[in-house]
Amino acid sequence: MKKKLSLILAAAICLSLAACGGKGEDTSKSQNGGASSSQQTAGSDLAYVKDKGTLIVGITEFEPMDYKDADGQWIGFDADMARAFAESLGVEPEFQLIDWDSKVMELEGKTLDVVWNGMTLTDDVQAAMECSVPYFNNAQVVIVKKDVADQYQTAESIADLQFAVENGSAGQEVLDGMGIAYTAAQDQATALLEVQSGTADAAVIDYLMAAAMTGEGTSYADLTYTVSLNDEQYGVGFRKGSDLAAALNEFFKTSYADGTMQRIADTYKIGDKLIEQK
Amino acid sequence: MFMTVVGALNEGFVQTLSLFAVTLLGALPLGLVVSFGSMSRFAPLRWLTRTVIWIIRGTPLMLQLYIIFFIPGMVLPSGNPWPAGTTGRFMAASVAFIINYSCYFAEIYRGGIQGVPAGQQEAGLVLGMTKSQIFFRVTLLQMVKRVVPPMSNEIITLVKDTSLAQVISIQEVIWAGKAFLKSSHGYKGLLWPLFFTGVYYLVFNGGLTLLFGWIEKKLDYFK
Questions:
Q1: How far apart are CA B91 and CA B67, in angstroms?
Q2: Which of A128, A72, A144 is CA-nearest to residue A241?
């Protein structure tokens, strides 16, 4: 009896394995087919989003781009624009907090449709995602302790500092370009934490973030930002090959032309850094 | 400020506890099934089970989380099969944790079962008991006693491992604490909430330790 049972179980497992194997072949075939067909019918991603009726927007908490108001609603320049874009497509926006390092995987795994979170358009980002045109100007700034800030106001003066910088960030690219050594941190906040605790002398983070996170009323009251190392631009990321990027570029144009985009940016006091869309 | 932070961390800790509870509910029984598979006298089933245990124990849980959550959406033509929003992420995390932990539990069970002297089974057979009677009436309770210390070890590890689920954006207590590093609930750049999450783990694991001590005492009558 026992033996029979285990025989049946084993047979069932073998069968299901075989079935899985079979399925694997099938999907690889259809994937190959899918690759060519996705190039022919490039409309598929837009159609896919419209068909399911939701636009899943990947964000992190990042004031003033994406953050929660007192009622728990996602607001901010990016959140408001994402909502308006979803509306223009006739779909519901769904905001999803993500682990920033997983953003490309999230897109490819279709657990997200778009990454819209003050994302700097670097070469890496543009290689991994289908990006919109730039819509916002940002800069990478150097964070140091307030009491030594006077000594580090130029790009030359910072060469000998111990840096902490978010792994894979635009700041890291800048430091690489300048040939300055650094410790890679998990995110911008951790990079700040390194400076605060003295394990690093300086960090390189976004201007927007630096303005929001340092100074009075934060745990980083004795940190400040000094020199801007480069100018850079924010864009929105979609799945590789997605036609949603083109749709968003069109949307930016109309939204800029009728003043909506400028008005939303002004709401969050960042209107002066908006990039003209034409 | 303290109350706001504690409120946010509590929300996160509810996620931590849910994942912990669901994993235990799934992995405790599944582990027993897997341990039977790994002890089966039918060699193909035994080797298959042991291969699965080898793969699951031999790769990082973090990698398993990535694979279970992201790969289906990449290979299935119908797209991501997990339900939208937090639900799907929680389901994926639960599946990954249950599979992972049932493999560890299975080995602990196996140790507990094989640790019961073979003479007792022989005695049962002589008395005309069936194999299942022997397992349920003779082996099982002794196994339970034997596995309590290693299981308590593994279960305490599970409490802390739930923090890995943040790689697929489960907003558990460490995520909630880290959110204050940037900005959360109207506060910006707070450091202490992240470190404060340690108190949650300590208190909960303290409770678990007491519970397991009590269970061990209760089972003391088997010598």
A1: 13
A2: A128
Neighbours of A172 (CB within 10 A): 21
Residue of chain A whose Cα is closest to the Cα of B73: A109
User: Is B97 within 8 Å of B23 (Cβ atoms)?
Assistant: yes
CB nearest A96 (choices: B41, B169, B191): B169
Chain A residue with CA closest to B88: the answer is A111
* B66 part of contact set with chain A, CB < 8 Å: yes
Q: Is the same domain home to A93 and A223?
A: no
ipTM reported for the complex surpasses 0.90: no
Contact B154, B105 (CB under 8 A): yes
Residue type present at position A138: N
pLDDT digits (tens, 9 = 90+) for B140-151: 888 999 999 999
- Residue B209 domain boundaries: 2-221
Type of residue numbered A34: G
Classify residue A104: in a domain, yes or no. Answer: yes
Under an 8 A CB cutoff, do A60 and B76 touch? no
Mean of pLDDT values over A62-73: 88
Q: How far apart are the first and last CA of chain B?
A: 54
Q: Which amino acid would we find at residue B62?
A: M
CATH code (residue B180)? 1.10.3720.10
Q: Name the residue facing A109 among B74, B166, B182 (closest C-beta).
A: B74
Q: How many residues are there in chain A? A: 278
The maximal CA–CA distance of chain A, rounded, in angstroms, is 84
Q: Name, in order, each residue with C-beta under 8 angstroms of A183's C-beta and a sequence gap of 6 or more.
A: A162, A163, A164, A165, A194, A199, A200
Check: CB of residue A259 under 8 Å from CB of residue A271: no
Backbone angles phi and psi of A130, in degrees to 5 = -90, 110
User: What's the structural domain count of chain B?
Assistant: 1
**Candidates B55, B86, B191, partner chain A, best to mutate (most A CBs within 10 A):** B191
Task: Look at A151-155, A158-162, A268-272, B22-26 and tell me which has the smallest mean pLDDT.
Answer: A268-272
Q: For residue B132, what are its two tokens?
A: 């299942």
Strand B183-184, strand A223-238: pairing: unpaired
Per-residue pLDDT band for A11 (boundaries 50, 70, 90) equals low
- Inspect the interface and report whether the beta carbons of A31 and B77 lie closer than 8 Å: yes
Same domain, A218 and A240: no
Share of residues in chain A with pLDDT > 90 (%): 54
Residues B47/B49/B52/B53 CA torsion (nearest 10 deg): -100
Residue A117 host element (H or E)? strand A114-120
3-state DSSP helix/strand/coil % of chain B, to nearest 5: 85, 0, 15
When divided into structural domains, chain A yields a total of 2
